[in-house]
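Standup notes, protein team

Yesterday: finished cleaning the Lachnospira hominis set.
Today: ABC-2 family transporter protein structure.
Blockers: none.

Input for ABC-2 family transporter protein:
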Amino acid sequence: MEIVRVFRKIWGIVIVIFVIAAGMCIFKTNNDNDKKAYDYYSSLTDEYISNLNKMSQDEAYKSVFSVKLEDNEEAQYIRQARAVLKDKIEYAQNYKSKVTDMAGYEKILNSSLYADEDNFGRLNAKKYAKDIKKLADMDVTPANTAAIEKFMDFKEGSVIFAIMIIMLVVIFVDERDNRMIYLTHASSCGRVNLILKRCGILCMFSFICSYIFNTLIYGMFLYMYGGIRYLNVTIQSSQMFSMFPLKINIWQFFILYCAIFAVAMISFGLISYLFVSMFKNYKIAMVVILAIFLCEYLLYNNIEKNSALCILHYVNIINVIIPQYSYFIYENWGYTGFIADISGTTFVLTAVIACIGFCGMLLMGYYMYPDRKQGFLDKVYQRLRELWQQIFGRTNSVFMEFYKSFIIQKGFIILILAIYLFANCKIYRGVNYSNNNLYLVNFYDEFSGRIPDEECDTYISALKNNIDELKKIENLTYNQKKSVSDMESAYAVMVSTVEHVRKISNEKSINAVIVKPDTYNDILGERNYNNQESINLICIIAIILMTAGDFSYERKCGMYVLSRTSKKRNITWINKTVKVALTAVVIWGISLAFNYTNEVSLYTFNNINAPVQSLITFAAFPLKVSIRGYMALCQIIRLIMFIVIGFMVLGISFFMDYKRSVALSVVILLPHVLYILKVPFMYYLSVVIPVDFNRYYIRFAGGIGMFVMPVMMIISGLVIYIIALRKWRVS
């Protein structure tokens, strides 16, 4: 019956964790600046491998790399793809010579610097030479291995899975909350049997979920980066696994990875279960576990690998929780007279942790009673809790709503996760081809922020005269032809810019000025769309998860009927509404702070107080505002949309419990997920994209179409909110 009880409580958490992991996978892929480059890399690799079957290696190479490219952004991605493929081809061609050439190691062994037999450098060279001989018969091909490499780089997946294991451990000990602990722990034999059953459940759960979880994530990376046709090539075809000792292909490696991943999580689960059992209050145990892992993380990140304390880096539980860079990567460490590799060290550490956790649990189950005395930390926790209750009793009802949402319902975890994701949302500065045109750069340096005048006209006329003079010369050199081309393109931009500014000034009576557009083309243009899309998606998900349970706590505590029949029930509704609005403001403010910091670190906002119509893209914008005012307007509309979504979820939560509210609220994100998965028409049904007013304005050129989806969202949100409010008022 224990397995049935655990399954009933954990299945919903598992589904949510899997959805979060899939969402983070999509987010990480969209947020990476290399997605387009890898799309080209995948097609180039397929073309190269296909040509190898028809022609010689040199001819196949020329067929892929000899095509000339134009100087534009797409060509830049193709160049990146070619560079990746070139490295892959060189790696495959040189692999045999690398594993058979011992000259470098013999040089180290014969050097006087490493004459001492116990010298770590000598030991490392000997071990490396011995290990690399095992790879002499590996078949390495320049295949597309981007999916498995991206999968191994997705360390967030391991952290999410570890959180799920902790939740499972907490479910194991929930008899402490329902007072069943005295019955279930009445005898030492019963306690030991229960521990053995739970350890068995932990093992079974870890293995099953490991294969499902990792298959889901790897399948998504295969879909996004390609490479499914190369699953039969050896894992050593990826440079990341050049020293992997087993001769297996990629799909076999993946199966092995899932098994080792499950073992690592079992070890982590056992030690967590031991800590939880050591404390009467599992919350104290969670704080202790968090403190220990925080210390381990700091040691892992801050201790240098060649430090005298490097053992604290390699013998570290972070290597167990995040197995991608420990079990499968070749790296030696040690001291004088001692050497080991990180994979072997981590396997031993995993076994030790598992033994300590399992044996410790058995001993505690046999000797410790459920009614043991409170320890020091238990007493401290009890005292702090009493002090907090005294402070909390003096706060107002709005603060109580925040406390229920952020603390009791664990909203702070969602907020921390959102902050982590915001920190990883970055706009990457693109290739700025205009900076290659010195004539245009000099023009903007001279006249940016100024109204076109006679001096500006003289400057442009002089450039035109120079172009005409150069064109009269016969047999121009390459540099002269390049200069003429740059001057003509710069002249065209200068003329169109000046004409635009004068047209805006004359027709709209707006004091437009010349503005260098590079920064605003990036921040308000297509380059920032994916970044803004990711940020808005995170904000909406966070608002849904933190708002969907607004009425579930009252239902759980049996206070729902009392709240609805109270004379002051309208005040309760107002408090919840204020809480939802402030939650949206907090999430919006945090995302804005991260986004602003990122943009300021990359760009200089020149002439930000100039009228927004000074930019050609916004010539038809109806309001007389500055560029700063336009950007502020976009953020205000974004905040309003977040609040409306929050009101919609609040209305839904009135009719349903937390899980159903989340499920129904997340349905509104389904069109956007389909849009991300390359279903183009879902663009017009997405609730994420309309939040970005700037993107919608540019997409519909200020037409009536830009208002359809936002207005529908506002109306539907307010309708659901008002219906729920009217039902709330009826006792």
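Follow-up from PR in the comments: Residues 430-435 have pLDDT under 50 and may be disordered.
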